[in-house]
Amino acid sequence: MSDVVLHVFNWKYQEIIDRLGEIREAGYGALLIPPILYSDVNSHDWWQRYQPKDYRVLLSHLGGKKELEELIKQCHTGKPKLKVYADIVINHMANENREDRLNFPGEAELANYRHNRDLFEANKLYGDLNEGLFSGHDFNRSGNIQDHEWSDRHRVVYGDISDLPDLMDSPWVLLQQRTMLAALAEMGFDGFRIDAIKHISTRMIDNFADSDSLAGRYLFGEVLTTNDHEEKTFLDPFLQETWISAYDFRLFQTIRNAFTMGGSLRTLARPESENNGLPWARSVTFVVNHDLPHNEDFRNLLLDRTDENLAYAYIVGKDGGLPLIYSDHNESVHRHPEDHDRWCDAFKREDIKRMIRFHSQVQGKKMTMLYESDLVLIFRRGDCGIVAINKGGDHASVEFDTSGLKNPSLYEDCLNNNKMTIEGDRFNLSINPRTAQMWLAQK
Q1: Of 109, 160, 190, 195, which residue is the catalytic one?
Q2: Which one of the listed residues 222, 248, 307, 339 is annotated catalytic?
Q3: Tens digits of per-residue pLDDT, 152-188?
Q4: How far apart are alpha carbons 401 and 368 in whole angstroms?
Q5: Active site includes 222?
Q6: Bridge partner residues of 167 (DSSP)
Q7: Of 120, 121, 267, 441, which alpha carbon lies 20 to 30 A from 415's?
Q8: Which homologous superfamily is 368-441 in?
C-alpha cells in the first residue's frame, strides 16, 4: 500500500469525494483534509478553518459531518483503501469581535444553535449544544507573542498568536480535547495533524497522544522552525518529550540550503545520521506546505520552481519519512499572481504521479549512495531502483559501481520514458542539467 499523503488544501469535502477515483489512480495512500471543527460557514477564506468556534460541531464552508462520514466510508471501502488524516486546531479558538469574545461558542452562536436545531444536531460530534463550551477561565490571557519573544519557548506556548485566544492546559480544556479526538477516532479518522503544535504544552500533547482512544492512530504536528536556534528551542524538546511525528522542517532546511547557489547535495546523502533530518519513523517530508505560500513571513522559504521539482524527486525517491504532496486551488494567486497554477491540482501532475509509481515499487528497500558531489546525487533503492539528481547548470556524466543492482538488466526512467541496460561492474550515467531521473529495473 502506498504511504504518500495528499494534502487536499482547502478542498470542499464533496469535491474530495468526487475525485477519489483520480486520487487513487495517481497512487496516493492517504489524504490530509482541512481543519474540520466548526468555523465560519459563510467565509471562503482558507484561514477561517484555522479559527474554530466549537469542538462539538463539524461544520464549515467546506462541508459538514455527513460529507465527512461519507468521505471516510468511501476512502476505507474503495480499492485500494485510503487513510484519512484530519487537520485539528486545538491551540486556540477564533478571534471574533464581540463582547463575550472569550466565551465559546458565545451567546449569539448558542442562539443560532437553538434557532437551527436540526442543522446543528445533524452536525454534532458530541456534547450538549444548549450549553457553552469554554469561558474566560479557560484561556491563558497573557497577551500576544511579541516580535522579540518568538525564541522564548514559554511565551510561544502560553501567549496568543495574533489575538487568537490561547487555551489553557486546565483539566476542563484537556477533557474536551480528549473527548473531541476520541469522538473523531470513533468516526473512523486514521490520524490527525495537530496544527501549531510548538505552541502547545507537553501536558496538552500527552493528554491526547497517550489516550487509549487514539491507539494505532497516526499523529503528526507542525513544529515550524527556520534555523538551528529554533530547532534547539522547539524541535529538539518536542522530539525528546513526545513520541509523535512532525513535519520535517529540519530536512526541509537542508534541502533549501542544498539547492541554493553554493549549497551541496552531499548534505542530502545521509540526512538522519548527519542530523540533517528527523528520525525516519517520525518524519513527514515535504517541499512546500500551506504556510509557505500564504504567510508573507515564510514566502522567502519557497524553493525555485525547478528546485521544488527536483526536491520532490528526492523526498519521494528516498527511503524514510512519509512524503506529503501539496495541492491547492490557487488560493494565493490574489496576492501573488506568479503562483498561478503552481500548486493547483498538483496531485495529478504527470511527473508527480510517476514519482509515486517509483516510490511504490521501491517501498521498504534500503537507500544506498552510488555517487555524491555538490551538484549531483545518485542513490539506489534496493536492487531495482535508481534516483539521479543534477542541480547544476551543466550536463553531468557520472560513473558508479553497479554492485547491489540487478545486473544485467533493462531499466526504465519513470520521469522521462528513457531506457538503458546496466551490465558489468561499472556504469556511466548521463544526466541533463537541472533534471532528475528515477529508474526502475524491468521484470
Answers
A1: 195
A2: 222
A3: 999 999 999 999 999 999 999 999 999 999 999 999 9
A4: 11
A5: yes
A6: 139
A7: 267
A8: Golgi alpha-mannosidase II (2.60.40.1180)
Fold match, 5-364 / 368-441: no
Place of cell 465527512: 68
Looking at the whole model, is its pTM more than 0.85?
Answer: yes
**Domain covering 5-364 in this structure, CATH number:** 3.20.20.80
- Determine whether 195 is an active site residue: yes
Of 207, 204, 245, which is closest to residue 223 (Cα–Cα)? 245
Residue 70 cell numbers, joined: 461519507
Domains of the chain, residue spans: 5-364, 368-441
For 304-320, the pLDDT digits (tens) are: 999 999 999 999 999 99
